[in-house]
């Protein structure tokens, strides 16, 4: 498989993407966090809802005091270098791998399929749906098993928490999405980032609880990272994100304490929900996946108490819950 070289154009996709009028665009893809839809059906105000439909840490990293330069100046090259060096140290990134900071993992997911000519990509389901959507938009064909020129593994998987191993990383282009792996760093496949054709994604929004900061990282094959950097252009990461990210990635005591608290809260959530008749289907320390008799009915019951949960169009029994904030436990128990 021939990868594009830095500066080359994306592969043509016109034959795989027929034109259609804007007023006939595809409906929004299924995601958590869509509180507007919840409020439209069940009322209330955004501030009055407790959103458990995402896997975002409810106790985010404390924001630093920003300077006028953070907001008013173009992002500084030295600050970007500091951030990427902090990322190398925090994730124990191999020296042979390149690092690219980006405005969120989602921006990287959109660009990754352009790294090679569209053929077959293996994406085992169920998993995070943006990967398949991004590859299909670039003209790739999706398969759930069998040989393929590209492969995506979400590690740990969303929504069931499945963990993968290095033996699964054998396609010419391999993407390892570790957006939720900071709760279990010992399971990381970051060593594979030194292999040709491998890119590991890291998200800042989940573990650190700052999804609105829009910060993510691509780590891996220097040639592929160079392409992503060229397409991204300069100043992609904001000044406030550069400052916050560098501080957070160097704050090992906060990360250690946070892992302990998340583990305790995940166990507490299991105890609470299983006592109401659910069974555990998987998850991570940032979200839990339960099997219930009627997931839509559970979601409606919680929504009447203005608590939003996550259900899935491919399963009538899967219910996913994130962790409530410290003052939300009694409210959740009462709603259940």
Automatic annotation (TrEMBL):
The catalysed reaction is:
O-phospho-L-threonine + H(+) = (R)-1-aminopropan-2-yl phosphate + CO2
Q: Does the keyword Lyase apply?
A: yes
- Domain named Aminotransferase class I/classII large: which ranges? 68-143, 153-300
Q: Name one Pfam family in it.
A: Aminotran_1_2
Q: Which domain of life is it from?
A: Bacteria
Molecular-function GO term, any one: threonine-phosphate decarboxylase activity
PANTHER family registered for this protein in UniProt? HISTIDINOL-PHOSPHATE AMINOTRANSFERASE-RELATED, THREONINE-PHOSPHATE DECARBOXYLASE
Q: Return the protein name.
A: threonine-phosphate decarboxylase
Q: Which gene encodes it?
A: cobD
